[in-house]
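TL;DR need structure tokens for one chain.
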Amino acid sequence: MRIASAICVGDQPAVLAAELTHQLQSQLQGAPVDLVVAFVTIQLAPAFPEVLATLQKQLAARSLLACTAESVLGVDREIERSAAVSALAMSLPGITVKPFHLAEDEWADILGDNQVLRTRLELPTDLRLFVVLGDPFTTPVVQLLDACSEEFPAAPVVGGMASGITQPGQARLTINGNIYSSGLVGVGMAGPLQVDCVVSQGCRPVGHTMVITRAHQNVIEQLDGTPAIAAIGRMLEDLPRKDREMIEKVGLQIGRAIEERKGNFGRGDFLIRNILSLDRQQGHLTIGDMIHEKQTVQFQVQDSHSADEDLRLLLQGELLLANAPTGALMFTCNGRGTHLFGTPHHDISTVRSVLGSVPVAGFFCAGELGPVGGRNFIHGQTVSLALFR
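>> reply
TL;DR here they are.
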């Protein structure tokens, strides 16, 4: 396996495509290219077909997957809201790369029966990973991720939703020269491939775990037998002053345990979701997820320090389990970057500081896809990585 990454900045598409190709070829040293995953900022959307056609032709890539984005990242830089292209090129001997496009008018049939999904994708049995890029306006991503978790449990889904757009029809997605403005494109990867997924939700827990004792849909009525808002108030009273001040500044989020049977919960065991509203009269809490009684939850806080700490700890944990990866795809939230950290290049610098000078490419998403607790989810304010070994 050989993996190369490159990123180029500028508003001249032909120049960008030529320079990107040159950088990737120099790293690959003549190895055949089985897959290119590329990201083009929305400023270059009119030249999207030109840039990618040049890239695929000059690299003789067997498969090319790409989308438009608000911002991109690659090598050691994050280019936010400026014209740029980033790409990861992979030589994968012995690996099967199966491209696909799922159109907007197919969802009812595909998601109505998991067997239809399997038949439609025509994937090998030794599937290891999905990499997908979708249009956020026309992709029922929650239902699709649930179906993939059930039908392909050994193949996590990583990727992101195209960003930098405000209405349907603005996204650009491509797989092998076919360009779409809706639906979802992706590849399934099968064979002797080791891929480890890291999903950093950027939060740290505060207080103690609680059990939902009364709820309906996405409304928590009681926690530990107490009205939800009263339970939050008691938790806040017991927190250190520093934590209370931070919560006043950035607010609270909530995590629900993915695997209740585990019992001893820690970092990575919770799916983080937003708190949407508080009904102080009823004492209820509305969150951005469907929940039910007897689920374990813990409140969370996200600030730049917590986000940095979470990503570092998860990456350091990866190095304890295996050698540094050969390359990585990285999908980060468009609410991170300078919005969260105040300085550029934070997340990609963190990845390289822990993993070394591994080839990396990715983009800032309108929703990041990645597994937590063995199931696939869409996230916000998250970094999702696929580490190839």
